[in-house]
Amino acid sequence: MLTLIKNGTLVTEEKSQIADLLFENDKIIRIADDISPDRNMKVIDASGLYVLPGGVDVHVHLDLPMFGTVSSDDHYTGTKAAAFGGTTTVIDFVSQDSDDLVKNVRTLKDKAAGKAAVDYSFHANITHLSDAVEKDIPLLVKEGITSIKVFTAYNNRLRLQDGEIFKVMRIARDNGILTMLHAENGDVIEIMVNEAIAAKHLSPEWHAKTRPSWGAVESVMRASAISAMADAPLYIVHMNAGGEVDMLEYAQKHGLQIYGETCPQYLFFTEEDLAKPDGAKWICSPPMRTQIDQDRLWHGLKNGIVQTIATDHCPFFYDGTKPINYEGSPVAIPGKELGKGDFTKIPNGLPGVGDRMPILWTEMVASGKFTASEFVKLTCSNPAKIFGMYPQKGTLQAGSDADLVLWDPKKTLQYGVAVSHQRTDYNLYEGWKLQGFPISVFSRGELIVDQGIWLGKPGRGKFIPRKTFNTDCLG
Ligand code: DUC
Ligand code: ZN
Ligand code: ZN
Hints:
Layout: E1 2-11, E2 16-24, E3 27-32, E4 41-45, E5 50-53, E6 55-57, E7 65-66, E8 69-70, H1 77-84, E9 87-94, H2 101-113, E10 119-125, H3 131-136, H4 139-142, E11 147-151, H5 162-174, E12 178-182, H6 186-198, H7 205-209, H8 213-230, E13 234-239, H9 242-253, E14 258-262, H10 264-268, H11 291-302, E15 308-309, E16 324-326, E17 329-331, H12 356-366, H13 372-386, E18 404-414, E19 433-443, E20 446-450, E21 453-454
Parallel strand pairs: 1-4, 1-5, 6-9, 9-10, 10-11, 11-12, 12-13, 13-14, 14-15
Antiparallel strand pairs: 1-2, 2-3, 5-18, 7-8, 16-17, 18-19, 19-20, 20-21
Helix pairs in contact: 5-8, 8-9, 9-11
Bound molecules: dihydropyrimidine-2,4(1H,3H)-dione (DUC) and zinc ion (2 copies).
Dihydropyrimidine-2,4(1H,3H)-dione binds next to loops.
């Protein structure tokens, strides 16, 4: 089956051009100034529309057990929400539930397979190190998994010691695996949380006060130094503090191969949001910071210091005692109310996978601050390149998957929970006025969202085995 998209403005990380794009079944086969339609082709007139590669969100947590509940989007609802927002590939995380890393991966593959509605992959968390685990890390590559995440926070749960991180990075480097870092200072957090509890400082703003940004800054510096000593590449997830950007820039200036990711919540909100009556909605780890931090993150994005914008999508209901209507049925999942009166019991995480592309388009492209190509670079192509999926994902090229978004730059709307499809009862961007929105979304050539109508199905998404890390991935 051939489909011709005519007269759209095609956007890649390099340029925007009015051109025609032809795809056959699941692959783009030709891009040219003028492709003549023939009678075998379905023709779509995209005059006045942008044609973007499907978004690539390399940081989501679907169906993740936490705080005695579970993140409220599973591999179906989360990938459906992604699609509505113009994202057609997501990367979730495999928890180290046992020391058999391959078994953990296969269990999550089985769980996601019947549910995912867009394509997906996984990173593997390494949260406990032993000789057996060290031997298992290289086996991840055969499973199609070429990135692992380590933590300098969550003492006695997820954290590795510095020497262990050093060892993991060397094994990763030798096997073409990219190490990712959750950068916070676990020791300081533990002390400050205990002190806050003792002093009965239990409201949500204490979540940010007990996780100071200096901990994130020193952790980025420490891990950069470890990556230098291990001669291994490093990717810093969910950057939130201006000082992290400073450290990243310092490391990059010293020739280290270090990449950075931030997320919309760190670009648009501050710790003051936690002090609102419904501040629990903004609780995530790391927390949001200050306007100065936001400004430095934007500077990092604009100047190539920070390479990607993902979401850390990990939604919870604000009030999980009250059902919402989801696909015609009532759904209620315990959420932020679990921590009423005690911030340490509020599930950490926010919705975002469906919000990312529309919110960022409005704030970056419609505002005139970034070009459409810069937007595509940060949300599609750089993530695909760094994580071994390019050019299958993240761009428009002959041979790429036909993951396409027809984006209407003139469409205006008031955004919020009624528009987004994330399975939760609130939206952080409630009432925001948006300019520009995805109207049709194709995943591997299949039209899955059309003018607000859902045409996708659970289980149609495929696991994408990823290539090993390429030191030259960003050229
Ligand atoms: N942070 C969150 O807020 N939730 C899930 C995982 C994470 O790193
Ligand atoms: Zn993290
Ligand atoms: Zn995360």
